[in-house]
Design brief:
Blueprint (H helix, E strand, L loop, with lengths): L2 H46 L3 H19 L9 H8 L1 H7 L13 H6 L2 H4 L3 H15 L6 E4 L5 E3 L2 E5 L1 H12 L13 E4 L2 E4 L7 H11 L1
Parallel strand pairs: 1-3
Antiparallel strand pairs: 2-3, 4-5
Length: about 220
């Protein structure tokens, strides 16, 4: 075969391969962005219908996506979602109202068996990390854990119930993170941050607003 044609064919194949890879990366990036926006919308809608356990699943997936973008290429000693929760615990606990996150002393046996004992004697932060880990692994909340519509952590029957405000505090940590500044949702979705009711479309990446609110209230 003519060397010129061999080179031409090689060049065309290489160009097409590079174009395919570039398109695949772009599609992947768009999928992540679209998925994150849809997860936020899904969480708001499920929460609005009172389906807090299902809303929590969407929130956990949104946290995982955000954490993977935030720590892409890093060699972490713990899962990315766990690092995200630790780094954002102050934000989450403040937005969820810290006094509501005290773990009750009368935890039923089934909950103690479901959640490792060292977590129960530690903190709400460790309990949340465990709950998110199990939810991501099983695609549902652990059966011994759930949410209460009003009030703080409490025991009901054989379940440990957490405040629903925890879901939206986690959601706020995702939305306000600067890594998500280019994300988008429909303008009909909004979020309450203390006394401020704001459209989510105006909150993406606005960590500075949260800092101003914290300075105002704390």
């Amino acid at each position: 075969m003519n060397p010129f044609f061999e080179f031409s064919n090689f060049f065309i194949k290489s160009f097409n391969l590079a174009k395919f890879i570039d398109n695949s990366v772009q599609i992947c990036e768009n999928k992540i962005m679209t998925t994150l926006g849809k997860l936020i919308e899904q969480t708001i809608e499920l929460g609005g219908r009172g389906s807090f356990e299902l809303a929590f699943v969407s929130t956990c997936e949104a946290i995982q996506l955000t954490a993977e973008k935030l720590h892409q290429g890093e060699d972490l000693a713990e899962p990315a979602f766990q690092r995200f929760l630790r780094d954002n615990w102050r934000i989450i606990s403040l937005l969820a109202i810290t006094r509501d996150l005290q773990i009750p002393a009368d935890i039923p046996l089934v909950v103690r068996q479901a959640v490792p004992g060292n977590l129960m004697s530690n903190s709400a932060e460790q309990l949340l990390i465990y709950t998110v880990r199990q939810t991501l692994a099983m695609k549902r909340m652990p059966i011994a854990l759930g949410f209460v519509k009003q009030g703080g952590m409490m025991v009901e029957g054989e379940k440990l119930l957490m405040p629903k405000s925890l879901i939206f505090a986690m959601l706020a940590a995702v939305i306000l993170n600067p890594i998500n500044k280019d994300e988008s949702v429909d303008d009909k979705y909004w979020l309450n941050l203390w006394d401020f009711k704001m459209f989510i479309s105006e909150l993406w990446g606005r960590e500075d607003l949260l800092k101003r609110m914290i300075d105002l209230y704390f």
